[in-house]
Amino acid sequence: MLNFSFTEEQDYFRKMLKEFAKEELLPQYTKWDREGVTPRHLWKKLGELGVNGLRIPAEFGGSGADCVTTGIAAEEIGRGDFNLTYAVMLNALIGEIITKHATEELRQEWLPRIASGERIVGIAITEPSAGTDAGGIKTTAFHKGSVYVLNGEKSGISVATAGDAFIIFAKTDTNLGNRGISAFIVPRDLPGVECTGYEDMGNIPIGRGSIYLNDVEVPEENLIGLENQGFAQVMNGFDLSRLLIGLQCVGAAFQSLDETIEHVKVRQSFGKPLAVYQGVSFPIVTHYTHLEMVKWQAYRGLWLRDHGLQHSKESASVKWLGPKYSQEAIHECLLLNGHYAYTKEMPLEQRLRDVIGLEIGDGTAQANQMVIAKDIIGKEFRSY
Ligand SMILES: Cc1cc2nc3c(=O)[nH]c(=O)nc-3n(C[C@H](O)[C@H](O)[C@H](O)COP(=O)(O)OP(=O)(O)OC[C@H]3O[C@@H](n4cnc5c(N)ncnc54)[C@H](O)[C@@H]3O)c2cc1C
Question: Which PANTHER family does the annotation name (predicted)?
Fold first, then answer.
């Protein structure tokens, strides 16, 4: 049976978040960008609304919701405040990783605080010399007594300036390549951890930056999953985050289209509303169509994940085209709103800057095309 409808509960959740986004997020979206702050109180508010704990089991303070429901949160929060969707995506990804692979003590320590929004946790893979080629990281973690000693530099990390802890990937066996990588939960206040922020083009409230690890002694219990298997175990989580990122971007782009449709119905040129000119309506239709197609591919991917079916190539296609089509739609909306949209009085210029960030973060277009090629052409023809 093919069924594209959401459940009554999912529809209710969407309606609640849509109203929240419109009333409480949208009016302040540009404020956090201008002030350069991470609005921690809004992460807590998302905790109260049950958004942070969607992929965390009820026994650890979450709701254990399915992936499709998590996608609804990504899309609707994206309409109100694109940067706050990092909470949806990071908490879903990290909630799943800790639930599936961490010890019971780590679950009890971190999951309820992530679900409530009291703690912000980031994920750190990228390094100055290893981005797309994530297996090429150089950070090391050597077992010494009851601790692992971490040394290295992580770069480009979301919430570097605001995070209370990070899931850090490091080589535990330098002879094993990708298989020699392990994941650790590293609290920011451990001696030897230093975080610095970047002056980014967009996503300002996310506080992206570098994390320096200088002889950081991490308790061995903080290892997530098996030693040397961290990469393989945790990579599956990115099939979820990529689908959510697609919906975050699409949410921001749909909001821009809605605002632009209202504008072109009212604004006149040559004695008629802009909307009557096909030079105006067709671009809107083109972007609407692109966004709808990505949106449904994203929900399909989430549905496949909920049913335990393969969805890596679907996820990669959404991560590739979601930010791209959204960025193109927002750009066009900016142009259709004329010169005022080029000012900081309107949110469009910020949405454009914000969405472009996720054309890179969590894998570029090429990185995702490699995933699809591996699947449809074959592993034996991959270049890496
Ligand atoms: C907004 C944002 C948020 C981020 N958040 C995080 C985070 O929370 N945690 C984290 O670990 N990282 C994060 N990153 C880093 C991000 O994951 C990396 O920037 C990304 O994986 C690309 O790596 P790179 O920048 O080193 O580029 P490179 O790997 O150097 O790639 C440069 C260019 O070359 C292309 N390229 C590379 N290899 C190939 C190839 N084989 N074939 C064709 N083209 C290729 C790439 O597609 C890209 O266009 C974030 C980045 C941004 C912008």
Answer: ACYL-COA DEHYDROGENASE
